[in-house]
Amino acid sequence: MSGFYHKHFLKLLDFTPAELNSLLQLAAKLKADKKSGKEEAKLTGKNIALIFEKDSTRTRCSFEVAAYDQGARVTYLGPSGSQIGHKESIKDTARVLGRMYDGIQYRGYGQEIVETLAEYAGVP
């Protein structure tokens, strides 16, 4: 799994079939470990920004539960709590968040925004 260290997940086409299979195997292992009580927190002390331009109950819950299970702390930035791309440029927001967080999850309307976040944040 070290091949995924600090790698952005921007679109499926960025991954080979073998890499996608590896990610699916990891997901199955994490799920089985949680169910059996053997889960090891790999993200202890890490901070993750969850940016949502559009509300999504299932996506938000999935990311929050997974992060907490792995020991990370999250900050939720919802549609009404973020000025990304409005009062603050996406590039500036990415740079600032990249200094504060170890990872950024983005759920929004445009692929261009996620690509800009990835380019300027310096974190996956």
UniProtKB/TrEMBL annotation:
- Alphabetized InterPro entries for the sequence: Asp/Orn_carbamoyltranf_P-bd (IPR006132), Asp/Orn_carbamoylTrfase (IPR006130), Asp/Orn_carbamoylTrfase_sf (IPR036901), Orn/put_carbamltrans (IPR002292)
GO MF? amino acid binding; ornithine carbamoyltransferase activity
In terms of SUPFAM superfamilies, this protein maps to: Aspartate/ornithine carbamoyltransferase (SSF53671)
Residue intervals of the Aspartate/ornithine carbamoyltransferase carbamoyl-P binding domain: 7-124
Location of this chain's protein in the cell: Cytoplasm
A Pfam family of the record is OTCace_N
A Gene Ontology annotation in the biological process aspect, one of them, is: L-arginine biosynthetic process via ornithine
Alphabetical UniProt keywords: Amino-acid biosynthesis, Arginine biosynthesis, Transferase
The domain of life for this entry's organism is Bacteria
Gene Ontology cellular component? cytoplasm
**Keyword flag Secreted:** no
Name used for this protein in its record: Ornithine carbamoyltransferase
Origin organism lineage: Bacteria, Pseudomonadati, Pseudomonadota, Gammaproteobacteria, Enterobacterales
